[in-house]
Each structure stands twice: as C-alpha cells, then as structure tokens.
Design brief:
mainly alpha, single chain, 2 domains
C-alpha cells in the first residue's frame, strides 16, 4: 500500500507543478479548450474502461478462459468510443481555428484503444499481486505526462500540448502493462463466456459513464454557456482544488475498497467506515483551510494577476471539498459489497444534479454563479453515494446527516469566520498581506483543531494513528 500512496503523491504533485508552469505559458482560452476535451472524454469513459479489468481480477480463477474475449470486447468498445468522440467533436465548435476541436480530438481517438486494452493487461499484474510494478508505471506515466505537456506548451503547441501528453499516456500504459504481463500468446476468444462477462460488467459499464459525468459533466454544459476564456478560468480554478481531491480519492479507491472487501463483519466495516470518514474530513479540512487562506494571494502573485478571475472558483470549491470527499468513500464501500446497481443509480443522481446545477448557475449568474452552484451540489446532493453506503450499514438518514454535520462543523465555523469578518479578501490582494495571512493561517489551524477535538475527536485520533503507522513503514 505504501507504493500506492507514493505513486498517487508523485502523480498529483506533478499535476500541481504542471499547472503552475502552464499557467504562465498557455492562454486562458487554451485551458477552456482542454476543459471541453475533458468533458468530451467523460462521454466515452464507459467505452474507455467498461470495468473488464476489475471483472478479470474478481474471476481470476478463470482468467485464461475469459482473457481473449475480454480483450476483444475492450477493443470493440474502444473503437465505438473513438467514433463517438469524433462525431461529438465535429458538432462542437471552437472560438479559434488554431484550436479546432475535431483536429485535436482525432489524435485521442486514434490512440484510445491502447488505453482501453491496457486495463486488461493491468489486471494480470493485479492478479499476480504486483502492486509495486503497477505503482511504478503510474509514477513514470505521471512524470512523462507532465514533462511532455510542459515541453510542448513551452514550444508553442498551445492546446495540442494536452493532446500529445494524453497520447503518450495511452501508448506508454499499453506498452508497459503488455510487456510486464508477459502475455505473448492470445488464444481465440470463446464467445460462450460473453453472457458471463456482460452480466459482470453491465453496471460497471453504465457506472463508468455516470462517474465521468459526475466528475466532468459541468465542463460540457458550461461550454455552451461560457466563452472559451470564461471556461478557462473555471477549469483552472477547479483544477487547483481538484488536485487535492484526486490525491485523496485515488488513495481511497486503491486502499479502502480492498480493505472493506476483506472484512466480513459488518460491525467492523461500520467502525472502519466511520473512522475513515472522520479522518478524511479532518485531513481534507486542513488542506482546504490552506487553500482558502493562501490561494487568493498565491494565485494573484504567482501568475501576476493573469488568473485572478479563477480565485473565487478555487476558494468556493475548496469550501465544499471536505464534504465531497465522502462521496468516493461511499462508492468504495458499495463496490466492496458488490452493490454495483445501487452505485450506478446514485451516480446518476450525482451526475444529473451536477449538470443541472452548473447549467442554472452559469446561465443566470455567470462564472461565479456556476462556481457557487456546483460547490453547493458537491456538498449536498453530491453526497448521495455516501448516504446510500451508510444505509447499507444500517445507518438512518438522520443519523448519517448528524454525523456528517458534526464532522464538517469545525471547518464550516472557521470558513464562516473568514468571510464574516472579511479576514480573506478575494478581490483586493496586496503584497503586504502575506505575513497577515500566515498569522491567520496559524490561528485558524489552531482553532480548527480545537473545534475538531469537540466535534470530531475520532477524526483527529484516527489521523494521528495513520501518521504513526506510516512513519513506522517508512522508518
């Protein structure tokens, strides 16, 4: 598990470094174009990874029989996904001829099958418990993606920089997993296993589309409302906070889902679920406090005012993130119990309400309205997965709501104090503010920990326990 943690940490650290660099060399419009491409890719997320890899891991005793047909199905899905990408991109315009959407997407479409097939070969490594090799590939992939993206951006490739970096990851993943899987002979597919495979992935397949929409559906909706510049500001501010969220959510999926699966006693699962929830909100709250206090100053001065319009987006998303991080935890528990149908239904609720919130907020109140609306959705209806998971553990809605509120109250109180007393200004940032912000940051952290000792003592204790165990492993 340590290798998984290291891989995720390096990956997201590289993402932050890359965004720091790209904030200088790329235009706001370039980020807007990439936001549209990211949204488009959400439309084909089910074709890209329909869950065949996870199915092969679950049915590892029949791997050799299912592998050839799974590989063929994966290839067919990927081809359909590639065609779908091209069709949708041909109907969506771009404000710039240099960033023609169809020309950009065609590179991804051609290489999409490589990414889809790589998940099949990756399953072999997971079955052989070669998690260290998987983590190494993820690490090298993240570093390569970042370096290629920054290099092409520096030499003026604009939005194509993102495309070339994505193409690299698709091909690199395929070659790496194929080579390390040591599978050199592929038998003829046996179609008698098709019904078994389809029954095993149908909810994963549908869920993959909905998960993509729940994570990135707002970009596609806002593309029809905003200019490329406005969408670029939204995407940039969102990603600053999202890198924190993805760092933690990937760790949840990699570590907690297998942990829940290995426990048969519901009482032990409930205990682990509660402790993980409390620690996750506590830890995310610390990171987001830093975002709320320092991001206005840092965004303004690191990029010399270029991204000031993204400040409110970053701060508002940070305020809702401690709550939103409970959603992947709920998803991990439902997956561990094999509740794929329930997971799919509640992902639909999450995706539908996200898209509706982004549309209404953006249509009536512009960039700031979209940020507020999406943040509210993430902290309310975006928690539907978590509430469903809690119900599976025999928690009532009221009991779960009470638990969530007690975990979030410390962060909510501190955030309220920030804005009620105007301690953090999102519009007027001065160079002399840094020392004052440091004082506010230290004091707010002290108050936050004290409030958690009152309302979320379990979260503090569990975080300390996890840090102690991590220290022992690294010693």
């Amino acid at each position: 598990m340590l290798w998984v943690f290291i891989a995720v940490l390096i990956s997201k650290s590289m993402s932050l470094l890359t965004q720091f660099f790209l904030g200088y060399v790329l235009s706001v419009e370039d980020f807007g174009v990439f936001a549209v491409i990211t949204g488009l890719m959400a439309l084909v997320s089910g074709f890209q990874d329909p869950g065949l890899g996870r199915l092969l891991v679950q049915k590892q005793n029949k791997f050799e029989k299912l592998f050839p047909l799974a590989l063929l199905i994966s290839l067919c899905f990927a081809v359909v996904g590639s065609i779908t990408l091209l069709v949708f991109s041909s109907f969506m315009g771009s404000d710039s001829n240099e960033n023609n959407l169809f020309n950009l997407v065609i590179f991804i479409s051609v290489t999409l099958p490589f990414m889809s097939l790589s998940s099949i070969f990756k399953a072999k490594l997971n079955i052989d418990l070669r998690f260290k090799d998987v983590s190494k590939i993820d690490t090298y992939n993240a570093i390569g993606y970042g370096l290629i993206l920054m290099a092409f951006a520096y030499f003026g490739a604009r939005a194509y920089s993102f495309i070339f970096a994505i193409v690299f990851t698709y091909i690199f993943n395929f070659v790496s997993y194929w080579y390390l899987s040591e599978i050199r002979v592929i038998n003829k597919p046996n179609f008698k296993y098709f019904s078994e495979i389809w029954s095993g992935i149908k909810w994963l397949f549908i869920g993959a589309f909905l998960l993509g929409a729940a994570l990135r559906g707002d970009y596609l909706v806002l593309e029809n409302i905003f200019t490329e510049e406005e969408l670029g500001y939204y995407f940039f501010g969102f990603m600053l906070t999202a890198n924190i969220g993805m760092l933690l959510s990937q760790g949840i999926q990699s570590v907690l889902m297998p942990s829940f699966s290995s426990i048969d006693d519901d009482k032990r699962v409930l205990n682990g679920f509660n402790r993980a929830s409390a620690a996750l909100v506590f830890l995310t709250g610390i990171l987001c406090l830093g975002m709320v206090v320092f991001s206005p100053y840092l965004i303004s001065y690191i990029w010399n005012g270029k991204w000031d319009s993204a400040i409110l987006v970053a701060v508002v998303m940070a305020i809702s993130l401690p709550l939103k991080m409970l959603s992947p935890l709920g998803g991990a528990l439902l997956e561990s119990k094999g509740k794929w149908r329930d997971r799919t239904i509640f992902l639909f609720i999450d995706a539908a309400t996200l898209i509706m919130s982004a549309y209404l907020g953006g249509s009536y109140f512009g960039l700031d309205g979209a940020a507020y609306a999406v943040a509210i959705q993430r902290g309310t209806l975006g928690l539907s997965l978590y509430f469903k998971a809690a119900k599976e553990l025999n928690y009532t809605f009221i009991k779960t709501l009470s638990s969530v509120m007690s975990m979030y109250i410390p962060f909510g109180i501190v955030a309220f104090i920030f804005f009620y007393f105007n301690l953090v200004d999102l519009t007027m940032v001065k160079s002399s503010d840094f020392f004052r912000l440091c004082v506010i940051g230290v004091l707010s952290l002290f108050v936050y920990i004290l409030l958690n000792l009152l309302f979320n003592k379990v979260g503090v204790a569990e975080t300390i326990d996890v840090l102690k165990k991590l220290k022992k492993k690294t010693a």
